[in-house]
Amino acid sequence: MSKKLSMILGLLMAIVFVIGLTGPVGANAASKVKLSATKKTVYVGEQFGLELTGAKGTVKWSSSSKKVATVKDGLVTAVKTGKATIKAKDSKTNKTYKCNITVKKNSLSDKTLKIKAGESAGLTLKGNTPADWTSSDESVAIVNNGTVTALKKGTATITAKVGSKKYTCKVTVAANADVTDEPVELTLWTIDTGDGLSDAFIRAIDDLKKAYPNVTLNPQTFEQNYYKEKIRNSAMAGDLPDIFFTWSGAFLGEFADMGMVYCLDDIMARYMKSGDITQVMLDNTTYNDKHYGIPMGMSVVVLYVNMDLLNQVGIKSVPKTLDDLYDCCDKLVAAGITPFGCAGETWCISEYVEPIIEKTIGAKALDKIFSGKASFDNDGVVEAADVFTDMLNRGYFGNERALDNGEVSGRFMDGRIAFYMNGSWNCGMFAGDPEFASKVTVSEFPVINSKNSKIGELIGGPSDTLAVSALSKNTGIAAEYAVALGKLISKYGYLQGTGLPTWKIGYDDSGVNALTRQVSKLCDSAKGFVLFGDTAMPAYEKDPYLDSLSKLFRGELDGKAFTKELAENIR
Fold first, then answer.
1. 113, 128, 120, 124: which is closest to 215 by C-alpha?
2. End position of a domain, from candidates 80, 104, 128
3. Last residue of a domain, one of 174, 195, 221
4. Are residues 565 and 441 in the same domain?
5. Is the pLDDT reported for residue 10 higher than 70?
6. How far apart are CA 37 and CA 520, in angstroms?
7. Is 399 helix (H, G, I), strand (E, B) or coil?
8. pLDDT over 90 (residue 20)
9. pLDDT tens across 22-74, in order?
10. One domain for residues 332 and 365
11. What are the CA-CA distances from residue 526 to residues 68, 137, 539 (Å)?
């Protein structure tokens, strides 16, 4: 055998050996085939789409029980109550992927409803099922996304149609001596978006023209910083408009303490009964157990996770405990990957420190501190600050601390940072890069002290709010109108990507990017919200608070020194 031939045979044997070690070329590709859902609970008449990504051949869809659920080209339709398995078979590999379906019976929150002319009430379907809503007599009552508005004495049937299924509610409207056909003018003040009223406001106001034909709304917009001063001065002077934009927490609380805002207990009770809104969403505008605000939208702090980077170090799921998080970060550092990214801007620092404090002392305890009802002199705050400092000292933040937030978020999108804790407003930017977005999931910081805190306690929550002046000449109609307006603004703001919904969805949100929908689901099951510290605290406390956060981030304070400084400078 010649030397040349021997070399060729040796090379071939090496190739065979390498292939034997690495497995078939198609093995890695096959492992990436994935069904978009493996378990789902739906309601009769509801539809949803399934997708088998990475399939090698054509996909054949089937259902184990067509009486319960059917499927065509991945579109599943719930037919009747029961259980079924939806199967997707890859014709190339003959492998079948399954999604287990549970179909439940749907129903309206009310089968009968009695309200007075001029009032509104909410109807919802179980499971927030998107529906087409109609009224049998729009001269008596109309319906918009489940909100029923009574116009005059009489009866009407409200129908919610889901697929081929219909669900009805008989509405009886009683006369209301306080309601007349006389024209009513209401003044609305809100902040200027740069082009006057926001699109969500414009669409919501237009939707309400049929429900309130005798109401003329006069909206006025103001630049945000000027507006804060103007609305406060107007409250002091007892000269507020009928309906006005405000911020929840301490800002609206000042007006409530002054007796300048109208109590919305009776109206909100109807919407809470229907499941249209929860008490958690109203906590930031509730003072002395009375409701004064209508939440229109919100944002929260979430933990964005690049699962592709975690998978590279053998981590298959988001860490659920602090120990698991540390273990994950140690592996990332060892692999030359920076675990966390945080800019040196104080608002960015707060979006790390505040969730860590919340997951140590609990949402209620942190809310008391931010609202001035408790001191920062708290052992739990010391513990939380030390956790943050320890993460810094372990090198979990790499060399990112000198960067601004734009640079940090850019590095996260470039795949150089595994975790990024920041606001929900980033979802749209991340979703704009589909390849990157497919690697990212949304979660929250793990619980540190389970005796005080729990999963589902989030930083942020409902902030943008509508309120009604207690001195309005038309408080009744102004309150009904404002609640209906706030609910619609919540809907349109969410659909347009400018905020998260504060009211139950009950409409098709498939056009919203997947990351924002993930965050919306986190919020929907939230156990509590604590407003951002610099929003919740009075203005004069904001600067010393942020200054101490900056020192903690720079390593100039440990947990005890941080807490001591806050207690001395604030309370």
1. 120
2. 104
3. 174
4. yes
5. no
6. 18
7. coil
8. no
9. 444 333 334 478 898 899 998 888 888 898 988 889 999 999 999 999 999 99
10. yes
11. 31, 38, 28
